[in-house]
Amino acid sequence: MSKAERAADLLRFWRTVEMFSPQPAPKPSRFSGDGHGWVFDLEPGDLTPWHEDHELARRRLPPRKTRIFTIFGGLYSVSGVPRELARVFGDDGKPADARPAGETAVFAFTVNSDGHVVANSATLSACAWAMSRLVAPGPRHPRWLAGFEEDENAFISALNNLSPPKLSKVGPDTEAGDDPRAGIGHAVGEHLKGAALDAVAAGAKASGTAVKSLAAGGVTSFAGPILGGIAGNVAGTFVEKLLSPPAKRQDTTKPSNRTALRSVRFDLTASALHEFVEDLAQALGIGETLRIAGIRVKCTVLSEQSADKPNEQGLLNSFIAADLARIEKETKKGNAGDALSAFLSDSDDITVTDRIDVREHRSALVAGAAPRRIPFGRWAGDPAKPLVASQQFAVNQLLAETPETAPVFAVNGPPGTGKTTMLRDVLAGIVTERGRRLASLTDPLDAFGEVAEHLQLSGNYSIPVRRLRPGLTGFEMVLATATNDAAANVTGEIPGLPAVGGLAGEALETDYFRDLATHVLGGEAWGLVAAVLGNMAHRSAFAERFWWADELGMKQVFRDAGTEPDEIPVWEEAVGRFRKAETLVATLTEERQRAADAMQDAANWRKELLAIEGALARAEADCESRRTAAARLDVSCRQAHEMLGRAERDCAEHLHRKPGFWMLLSTWFKAGPQWTKEDEALRAVRERARQDFDSLRGDLAQAQQLATEAQQRRTGLHQTLQEARANLAAALARIEEAEARWPGAVPVEDSDDATFQLSAPWADEEYLLARSRLFLEALRLHKAFLLNARRSIRGNLDAITAVLQRKGELKAEALQAAWQTLFLVVPMISTTFASLPRLFTGLGREALGWLLVDEAGQATPQQAVGGLWRCRRAVLVGDPQQLEPIVTLPLSAQQALRRHHDVAEEWLPESTSAQKVADRLARHGTWLPDPETDGDTWVGAPLRVHRRCDRPMFDISNRIAYGGKMMIHGTPQRAPFPGENAWLDVRSVDSDGKWVPAEGRALRALLRELGGQGVSPADIRVISPFLQVARESKVVARSVFDGQFARDSVGTVHTVQGQEADVVVIVLGTGRDGVGARNWVAGKPNLLNVAVSRARRRLYVIGSRANWAGLRHLRVMAEFLPARGDLS
């Protein structure tokens, strides 16, 4: 199996998980006031709340207000889903999940105050539909989950016949208030002529008959996706039964479709709804399996203008399942793109041998933070608050990578380590780089090419959409998060004045559409650098404020520029200003790089000196050894010479004693042989002495040569040592000069870990200001470009506004150009993962530049797929030790589906996150303790300096989640704060579920105490791991402060990630029987890590120490928080 096929299988598995993960139906609530938010079960004999005789009708509403009612039909417990999946696919033998089951519904739609269905408000449960497919055709069929969108469209189409007359279309991307199909009669009428119109005029009664007859006859092309499928069939029959034909007409004139539909009268009763539920459940074959029954209604009070605009999100279904299906098909064809392909890589295919642990290898961090690696553009922030080493390294590294080298970059961001601050610098770097591309244009109009498409609007009005030069694309930034609050936290902060604290004056003077930004943001802004889009409400609000606002909108800005050409910046002057600022930054960068090079030189010379000194020591020893050897040989040679001399003298003396003739004669010639014998012996001795001497003389000459060479080497090394010392001294002098010139900004590589991490490499004020001002000049250049190229830009922005408001559609190429143009104006746009597929409907693979995922640890891996597919590069910022993704489908069901799709266990949404998947790909990162395996896990480039919490909150977080070694405490000294951190030990065991009333009394007393100490309610957060405890805590908080505080500042731990407060109160809850709940909280550090790290100054824990303090992680809290008696 190819990689593309494996990746497609994985996407198919995730889509299946999403289909079997329904959204919950709301729980019943008490009636109060005007009925807003009231949720109740509607019994078959009850009066419907839209009926004129219902009690609600007597409750008057303010002018221009009305009620709508969302009907949730066919309630069932989601616990039946994993049970049925286990039956079909096999049980894994593991215990069932302990999580609460909850209820969902088979369908939902909205009814207005007149009892008409709001067009396109209907939703068919994908889970219920998929459960029916388990029966037929069954999971062995290759397309067992294909066709849901078509069947849901048929379902919507049929129910739209109960909506007020308004003819349009429906499709998988139909959104709130847009393109409502208000009568199947219209669609049928397009296909039937003449007498058939009478049946149409009789209302949608004909639709049900048509559905049944067409289904029986196997005809499906009659009205395309409008008819067909089980759900569409049943819905058509429901409408047929509900509508009565109009009274007989006295003339033979055929009425128009609209007139006919207006004549239709029907009564949407409770009994009819219950019958619809029964019929649909029976037709789907899941009535008994899931025990489907009942109708639930939610009442909402809203403006009359919004009454016909249903919520764009599916009320019951996954928001990303359809997108996953599309991307699965593209991936199987090899059209996944670099970022998504990398993200979906099997762990076995990822290279791990080149990983660099930046905590262990300081040199990698120093090299990565060198001036030449620092982006030219810096956020326009306070120069007194620069990025610290780990932040700057992450920014440098991710911007230096390419789609080919690292299309996915992971950043590990523990709490309080400045993730948003880092992302601002990423934005500044990207915008500045695009500014450099813009500055290369001779004429701003050169940025645009030919018209890609004319968008036809009403009448003869059309909008030309022009292609953008490729070199100006790829800079688009999409910030995606799991929740609306998280998205707004980042992109809502970035344009706000506090974000440019310290440089607010210069930022305001830049005037990057400041007034328009303030209008779009809904609060004082300094520039139009980011905006919140996402869901339809946000998109509509943005489009209205950004483009159409009478005096402030961009359309009016362009008009004003046309009538006041003198106010338009001269392009050449704008380019000149940018180039001047760019040149300054380049010069300052080069100066600091020389200092950085000196640091590298010094490090190299230190290594060289060590090597030279070692070599010199060895040369000294060798030289001494050679001299000693030569001296010994010289002595031996002298001795050998003396011995040779004696031997020669002995031979000469013996020669003088050679016997003459008379001696020979007198000895009868015996003396001759004796002398000869002695002479031969003496000659032999002399020869040996000569040989010894010659040998030693040769050895001496060689030894003396070696000694000379050793001396020369020694002398050379001495000289080299002096040169190296001189070079080191010169490098140190340059470093000393740099330290004197930029005190505190020159990194000290051999400093201790905390000192180095708290440092800000090369962040002297002159350099920071120059880079920030270059970023501001880049924005000025962007503004000059936009105003000078307005003739080409206007059409593209007009078109994207129409797309955002669902008033027009573009083909892929023109749509991409329109989006790219909007990003030229607003560099960063945020969205939730849920809204991303619809926001970027029509955009294909790698159509945009950057995907920035914040709090990626909270996102399931499948949530990130749509953004990864549409973007060339991705940066995922998060922390696996904080809140994990919420997966509604129980683990046992996930396992059953995983086995069916033959996918590795590592891809289970229950056990991983988008952040964990991205971390695997990180080349630069570190190892963190894994709380589940007691081993270590690899994470992306870590942000390590924590600047939020005082101690002991910092110590608790660092200990329970990071082994006490990851984070560095960098919180600055602050003014004294009232109170003392404490654990309020509530020993009562009486409880109502998880709520302990005695803890509520302690909470009330603590809040009063804090108020008495002068702590503002705005600086307090009350949180709990449990929803019930949070709800009851709201009641307590309301009694002490007010309803606003209870709504905004009290909730579960999951509601506060990304937030912080001076005081955090954790109400633990659980009574005598809460062992399982307590073990769940203590099982992992994630929940407690988030809870504790929200507190800047004071942390209070309310609960029984006897029950909690002995549990894992809780014992660390107990160690740091002194016990305090019950305040109640």
From TrEMBL:
MF terms from GO for this chain are: ATP binding; DNA helicase activity; hydrolase activity
**Keyword tags:** ATP-binding, Coiled coil, Helicase, Hydrolase, Nucleotide-binding
Q: Which residues form the DNA2/NAM7 helicase helicase domain?
A: 717-887
Any idea where the DNA2/NAM7 helicase-like C-terminal domain is?
993-1105
Matching Pfam families: AAA_11, AAA_12
Please give the InterPro entries that the UniProt record associates with this protein.
Coronavir_polyprotein_1ab (IPR050534), DNA2/NAM7-like_C (IPR041679), DNA2/NAM7_AAA_11 (IPR041677), P-loop_NTPase (IPR027417), SF1_C_Upf1 (IPR047187)
The residue stretches assigned to a coiled coil in this entry are 588-622, 686-741
Q: Tell me the protein family, please.
A: Belongs to the DNA2/NAM7 helicase family.
| Name of the protein | DNA helicase
Q: Which organism is it from?
A: Amycolatopsis acidicola
